[in-house]
Amino acid sequence: MSNYKMNVLICGGTGCKAAESANIQARFKNILEEKSLEDEVQVIMTGCFGFCEQGPIVKILPDNTFYVRVTPSDIEEIVMEHFIKGRPVERLLYKDPKTKESVPATKGMDFYKKQLRIALRNCGFINPERIEEYIARDGYLALATCLTEKTPAEVIGEIKESGLRGRGGGGFPTGLKWELTAKSVSDKKYVVCNADEGDPGAFMDRSILEGDPHSVIEAMAICGYCIGADEGVVYIRAEYPLAIERLKIAIKQARESGLLGKNIFGTEFNFDIELRYGAGAFVCGEETALIHSMEGLRGEPTFKPPFPSQEGYMKKPTNVNNVETFANVPVIINKGASWFNKIGTEKSKGTKVFALAGKINNVGLIEVPMGTTLREVIYEIGGGIKDGKEFKSVQTGGPSGGCLTKKFLDTPIDYDNLIAAGSMMGSGGMIVMDEDDCMVSIAKFYLEFTLEESCGKCSPCRIGNKRLHEILDKITQGKGKEEDIERLQELSHVIKDTSLCGLGQSSPNPVLSTILNFRDEYLAHVKDGKCPAGQCKAMLKYTINEENCTGCTLCFRNCPVGAITGERRAPHFIDQALCIKCGVCYEKCKFDAVKLA
Amino acid sequence: MGKITSLSDLKRIREEVQSQIKIRENSDHPEQMVQIKVGMATCGIASGARETMNYFIEETEHQAIDAIVTQTGCMGYCYAEPTVEVILPGKEPVVFGYVNKKKAEEIIEKYIVQGELIDGIIPLSFKTIDD
To answer: What b/e string do you get for A244-257 counting C-beta neighbours within 10 Å, with b at 16 or more?
Structure first.
């Protein structure tokens, strides 16, 4: 029996690991040994807490103290003050940005109040490298119940009734997908987990695999039982080394415990899982491209039908689901479809995990019931816009999504509402933009991404996106014309209508949605030659006000390209032909003489 | 951990391993638990608060009482160390003084299990800012 009276949970997600959480763990162990407390305080590395903005996170239990931005040099103080004397270290507590007061426990934090954690239920709670802790939280109970008490059709019925839809972006009903694959007749079938998370700024799937790998393994086995497959494959990108590591440990432990392998739970059911590494191509998140990549072919999509449920991996029926979708499955079985389908909106059930990023105070990972409004997510959980700036737009759905404006802030988030608003759910990236962001540049940024990631197989995507990018580039250079806006729209529609796969069909979305919601800004670029956000460098013009200039030569000495001329104690001038708009003169001038137009 | 070959196997192992994460499970909803706070300032520790705390942890574990045992700072009753505050679900906190092993045994047996008040309660002599 363990004698531990305290638990120290250290975030072991990639973000916090990069910020020295491994050293923090080592330091805790050292100091606890020094003070002979190693039998009283247990130190556990867990998955992501979601509050990445304030990482590394250290949580002390049972008193639920939440320390933020902890460094290895703080550990001695925590041990001496908190563990030995029972006083929390005030300066490391999370401070409420509104009241500026310390919030000792997670319950008082706005960040956690509105969240409902289903897919992330074990993240930041259990040690992902110990199967025992997963089992203690009802792990593998769903698989056991399915195998010993339910028929595959009953389980599929349960998933259908729950209303679970694919969390990777498309929102296809999961139960229906399972049913279709189950109906396909074949000697061999496959379950594939799509862990090829590629949207810029999205890290939901990585965090689930890092924090709770067994939930995905269990769900894949349940899926295998339902569709009649004995082999599962996780397609994961090689850029996720920690997730791969944890997944490998989890698979090994599941095999050793007999939860993967032959005759699971004493039944006829056999199931095992292997890993395939992707090289990080965005298009490989598309299921047909993913399957080709798994087969060792080029990661290029093919036309559907045939759907993977009929003819997928190795030409056999294959069920492909995303990580987060799988992570929901064991909970649905354990708690029942009728519990799950009470959460959320009419057509979107359950919760969704979002990765909050951009100009927002609490960058991190959150899970909220479907139907939560964007305002609640951004202002209450996200803590509002950084530096008190004005909200401008929120980008959802990654490179395939769109930018939503202020007027959509009170829209309840679900699959259908986001599509109606001109964006999409996507895999759950949410990038917040403030008044300093130029929407034309944002559209250009996303297009640069699709341009890089297009596989090049079909011409609308390969050539069309290139042309779109050229026009956008021209506009940000200040060389755009009014008719370019129409041209962008026309070309976008052609690309959407004629591209082969989801990547091309959705790649113009950021362009279309920014034109729709921010036409003014496009017009300012092409008509007035101005970038309202001041982001497009080519359109900036620095000049020196002769009255204010004292001839101190500071700008002259700092200009990296020698564009500034002038005598000592006489007004200086900027040669516009040489100026590279770096803004150094503007920053250095002490007399407010450099003006920005 | 051996092979799991049946549903009952899994349930048995779940019971066994649940104690490993009990501290974490309980801290999620402290208001439904018996909360035992042991004053662990310098004077408390010098008077044996550490032994008292360990005893509470072992005994609540042993008797399967759903309790969270935490340490807290100086409560100000230095004359009566070790001091222990006990909060039963839905009840007002009660502070006991001079809690050695024997007293702790009595607190568990009489107050926590049977709900009877016992000698040695320190009356609250102050208001907190939350009152």
So the answer is: bebbebbbebbeeb
